[in-house]
Design goal:
Layout lengths: L28 H14 L4 E2 L6 E6 L2 E8 L2 E6 L2 H14 L10 E2 L2 E2 L4
């Protein structure tokens, strides 16, 4: 994030203020998070969906992993358990994550596994 115009003093451009509240209450937070996430995930060979910017796909041979981003929740879907595990392990090295286990609902839709 950059200092807003008018909030820097000459000779003190590198100084910043300590925030007394969470960054998530700021209007720029979700955009900053999305930009960072997009840069990181593309670096792991995921391709952003042209029609839904919250859906990414990674293909390796006959294996495919879809990553669905909903605010700050990630849903991984794929046909290769090892590739899913590798993706999840890699993501946890890039972001502070908590594994919530298998999803049973997403956006109010019940997921039935096979």
């Amino acid at each position: 994030m950059d200092q807003s115009e008018g909030f820097t003093s000459v000779g003190e451009e590198q100084k910043v203020c300590h925030l007394q509240r969470s960054i998530y209450s700021l209007k720029q937070a979700s955009q900053s998070w999305n930009i960072r996430f997009d840069e990181v995930i593309r670096g792991y060979d995921f391709i952003k969906n042209d029609f839904d910017p919250c859906v990414y796909k990674k293909v390796s041979g006959s294996s495919v992993v879809f990553l669905v981003l909903n605010v700050d929740d990630i849903l991984l879907i794929g046909n290769d358990v090892k590739m899913l595990g590798d993706t999840k392990a890699w993501l946890s090295t890039q972001f502070s994550m908590k594994d919530l286990g298998e999803a049973s609902y997403i956006l109010g839709i019940k997921i039935i596994g096979g």
